[in-house]
Amino acid sequence: xxxxxxxxxxxxxxxRRSAYQMALSIIGIDKLTVAxxxxxxxxxxxxxxxxxxxxxxxxxxxxxxxxxxxxxxxxVDADTAKGIQLYYEEAQKRLCIPKAxxxxxxxxxxxxxxxxxxxxxxxxxxxxxxxxxxVIEAQKKLYGYRDSELPLYERMLDDYEPGMRIADYxxxxxxxxxRLLPLIAKIRxxxxxxxxxxxxxxxxxxQKKFTxxxxxxxxxxxxxxxxxxxxxxxxxxxxxxxxxxxTKYLPDNPVSAIFSTVHEVGHAxxxxxxxxxxxxxxxxxxxxxxxxxxxxxxxxxxxxxTDAFWEYNFPRLQKHFPEQLGSVTLAQWMxxxxxxxxxxxxxxxxxxxxxxxxxxxxxxxxxxFSGEISTEGLDKVWxxxxxxxxxIEAEDPSEGIxxxxxxxxxxxxxxxxxxxxxxxxxxxxxxxxxxxDVDKALAEGRYDLCMDWLKEHIHRYGCRYNxxxxxxxxxxxxxxxxxxxxxxxxxxxxLYGLK
Amino acid sequence: xxxxxxxxxxxxxxxRRSAYQMALSIIGIDKLTVAxxxxxxxxxxxxxxxxxxxxxxxxxxxxxxxxxxxxxxxxVDADTAKGIQLYYEEAQKRLCIPKAxxxxxxxxxxxxxxxxxxxxxxxxxxxxxxxxxxVIEAQKKLYGYRDSELPLYERMLDDYEPGMRIADYxxxxxxxxxRLLPLIAKIRxxxxxxxxxxxxxxxxxxQKKFTxxxxxxxxxxxxxxxxxxxxxxxxxxxxxxxxxxxTKYLPDNPVSAIFSTVHEVGHAxxxxxxxxxxxxxxxxxxxxxxxxxxxxxxxxxxxxxTDAFWEYNFPRLQKHFPEQLGSVTLAQWMxxxxxxxxxxxxxxxxxxxxxxxxxxxxxxxxxxFSGEISTEGLDKVWxxxxxxxxxIEAEDPSEGIxxxxxxxxxxxxxxxxxxxxxxxxxxxxxxxxxxxDVDKALAEGRYDLCMDWLKEHIHRYGCRYNxxxxxxxxxxxxxxxxxxxxxxxxxxxxLYGLK
Lengths: 499, 499
Fold this sequence. Notes:
Radius of gyration of chain A: 23 Å
Number of strands of chain A: 3
Structural class of chain A: mainly alpha
Helix content of chain A: 55-70%
Mean pLDDT of chain A: 95
Number of domains of chain A: 2
CATH class of the largest domain in chain A: Mainly Alpha
Oligomer: homodimer
Largest sheet of chain A: 3 strands, mixed
Low-confidence stretches of chain A: none
Strand content of chain A: under 5%
């Protein structure tokens, strides 16, 4: 076969797999947003079958032979070669797994999601526990097939953030503990900012109207993006021009929907702003979970929680809630939305305590895969860790162990990238502020200038370069956790008058 | 191969095809409800590919051999044999079509839908005309492959309503013309019922709240059903416990959303109430388009437009719109929602003029496929026919030739079943009223008793029996168009004091 013939086969294969990916993505969004629950069993079984079809396409020996030849073929351009290399590596991870077990796992994870949702609604961990146990056992088995010298949990970590090892995360979280826990303790004793005005009736209808305005400010265009509602907000996409987000409205607090919207639109914008030449290809995906999360956190916290952002948006929010916010000043609002302190629910946590929520999950995941922790009584382990690090614990498991969807689908090793993403974001923002008057842009309604900077330095590359390369390109230096910890110390010491 | 081995292969094949059907159904709903439009091209190409995959499964020679053996195998139970027979017949229709042409048509029809939507929004037939032309040419070619002695248009008619020929429809519409056109003319000259109160501001938010109550009355349960919004309401389903409907809210008229809701839930209930043993199999589908439409029309008109239905629901509606309806009596409401008279838009038409809207489409379709009518200037042909039969014509093509979605996807021969369905519904209702005090049930909020009757006599059979068989089983006599025409004459003569 000539290079040209191989490339033709590669492109046909790319198209074929992108069709299944699109179907699975849309079926997934549908399930999480509107699909009638009594149809779950029927749909889940068939969804698993279609996942199996994609699995077969991805592990087809004929195409793997083509990929193998092409990845070292000097006649192939660098972009294409990089994509092929990544597909080849992904295929190696799947090849070792028997297809029937792969399908069985897909089906299990769908059922497990349903059980998690029911358990959360009924506030009963015992409904979910048997599924969690099965999911962990299945993941141990599936990851066990992989030819790798890494311990099981490290294989999972590597899938979400290539190159990050347990030792790296241990060091990262040790720094978090060392520098943030004392600060959190001080803040716990400091005077609380007044934030009662956040906790009253905020009509969901009115919140939706403000969200529509906010989406415009964020440049989330309905021609390529759509926002829906779910229990657990997420972002999903099929291509450059189809990036969906979801949010969740609380009738007694507007902050949750606002910041989850800014967050998820950050993910969506990353996907939308990738070089369109990569559409439908692996290169169009974000580099890693940590890099993806860095973009959403950057938008949510480093832009969305600044004075400048709210200089523009707060008067608009006040118009929707004159009774609740008419007499609140911008300064009061800023102190309230930046209030820090121990809390139970990760997605509602402030920037400062957020990495501690992740630390807890990281320690539990490590324990689950080393065998030191089991799923029985895990709700109690969870509570004990919250007590230890944050001094509080959940009475209701829907605010404790059942709060997050991730484990129901077998996503272990994913959480740590959330904290890492926050840290990446600090360094990216630092660089952005050197090039651009970010505050001026935000205050004048020119959020797009920030998005342009991200496109230029990060988004357009997709995963053409790895996290280290992009960090260096965009910020001029390697990743440095201290930029993140300095930022948090500085921000919260100032906010709480501890300096 | 033994019968058992063949049945196993058949069941595996059934499952496989149902997975693709489910995916295509969900992707289709997504496209018509929430998918971002700039992603259309990307998604449409891949959706067409997946349709091709289903086409390959359905025309796989190995499975056709199995179906051929099984359909005449006396060891197979009657239900299964009937399903196999139907699959075999469907496969024969597809086998003759080259797969590449089938995929090209799927893609064309997706692009054509996008063009239709744009044309309707821009009120410009010329945007849609080239696509309509291509779709018709493609359908002529695809139906031309079929080994059949029927004329092209009759093949299409037969696909939607097996056994109905042009001569049958000609006779049907001749009766419609003969008995209804004079009545319509008389009503045009009669005094109009007062209905100004229908045409004022009705908040969409408030309409949605009433719809939620109405859905409960209709026993449309969120565990198995979901309602969304679209430009053109429709119903879609993947299985017994996943039946979706859509509606459209007009801010200046509540009637449209109400009756489209009752109508679409009629379709959904038909699917939901089929014998669950048939789930995922061809037997679970409705018998024919006319039979499906008979169930939605029965709900919309023969139940939904009765005094008894509104005796229960009108006070509830009034509570949502005290300003608009507080001083309107039930009798005034009933006269207003049953007002008849020439109108431009089929989906908003009254029961009496409805079949005339269909007659116009039937004559145009016949002309398009006999070659007497072409797509160029079709907007003018359309208007001329409205002028001839109803004495009015559309100035805006979005209320004229662009009003319906059907032709954009190549659905020709479908419209006539809408009128036929109304006629079937008259005969079913006649039989239901012999068994059940329908008015008492409706007035007391026991809509479910009517649904139970439909389940028992029609729904549970799926397409286990054909339309003629079910008509005979359910009503005790063969289809008689005069029951329908008598009903309309009686109802409208009374309403307009013409008796």
